[in-house]
């Protein structure tokens, strides 16, 4: 990850990084820990220090979120956010599967709860296609309740 990130910055910055012997990462959430991991993988001899203000790393927002791997439904096509979301999703799923870590790939239902919301649903479906989202299915109300969630009300 870092090596590809480094490829996109100037050769001077990359050279500065490669000459470093120690790096300090401030904050031990998922981002800080991922950065620290990427740095050590990019340069084995480097010393990395993660400074965390709490008693343990990963105890802030990182461990209190909804636990969802975002599908990339809502981001603009061709945006960096969409690109990172789709790539990150694939890589996170592979990471978990390679380590036999629990993962519930349950999919996501986005429903219209009134006829007025149909156009919004259509717009989301169109964006999903533009975003290259795999596995998109358009379901009827009956299919949703009989195949997936009997208590969902969609119209
Ligand atoms: C309610 C909620 C639900 C979410 N649900 C999801 C979800 O389902 N799926 C998803 O992908 N994302 C979700 N997110 C977003 C996701 O949780 C965050 O994007 C991610 O955890 C951010 O990680 P981080 O490492 O940047 O921040 P943090 O996890 O906040 O880590 C930052 C760390 O830095 C430390 N720190 C701060 N200042 C200092 C300092 N001066 N010195 C030393 N340490 C310091 C903090 O203690 C903390 O441990 C959700 C976010 C929220 C708020």
Characterize the structure shown.
It is built from six helices and two strands; from the N terminus they run H-H-E-H-E-H-H-H. It starts with a helix and ends in a 7-residue tail after the last helix. The chain has helices at residues 2-8, 11-19, 30-42, 80-98, 118-130, 141-148; strands at 22-26, 47-51. It folds into two domains: 2-63, no CATH class; 66-148, no CATH class. The radius of gyration is 21 Å and the shape is elongated. It has a two-stranded parallel ribbon. Helix 3 (30-42) links the parallel strand 1 (22-26) and strand 2 (47-51). It is mainly alpha-helical and 155 residues long. The model has no long low-confidence stretch (mean pLDDT 89). Flavin-adenine dinucleotide binds at residues 26-32, 51-54, 60-62, 65-68, 70.
The ligands bound in this entry are: flavin-adenine dinucleotide
Order of secondary-structure elements = HHEHEHHH
The total count of helices amounts to 6
- How far apart lie the N and C ends? 43 Å
Task: Please sum up the structure shown.
With 155 residues, the chain is mainly α. It has helices at 2-8, 11-19, 30-42, 80-98, 118-130, 141-148, and strands spanning 22-26, 47-51. Strands 1-2 form a two-stranded parallel ribbon.
């Amino acid at each position: 990850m870092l090596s590809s990130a480094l490829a996109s910055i100037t050769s001077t910055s990359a050279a500065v990084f490669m000459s470093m012997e120690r790096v300090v990462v401030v904050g031990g959430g998922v981002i800080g820990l991922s950065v620290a991991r990427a740095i050590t993988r990019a340069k084995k001899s480097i010393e990395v220090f993660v400074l965390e203000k709490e008693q343990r790393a990963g105890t802030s927002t990182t461990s209190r979120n909804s636990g969802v791997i975002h599908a990339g439904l809502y981001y603009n096509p061709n945006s960096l956010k969409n690109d990172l979301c789709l790539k990150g999703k694939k890589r996170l799923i592979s990471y978990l599967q390679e380590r036999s870590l629990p993962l519930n790939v349950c999919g996501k239902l986005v429903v219209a709860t009134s006829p007025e919301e149909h156009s919004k649903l259509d717009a989301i479906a169109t964006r999903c296609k533009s975003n290259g989202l795999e596995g998109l299915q358009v379901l009827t109300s009956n299919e949703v309740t009989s195949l997936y969630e009997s208590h969902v009300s969609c119209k």
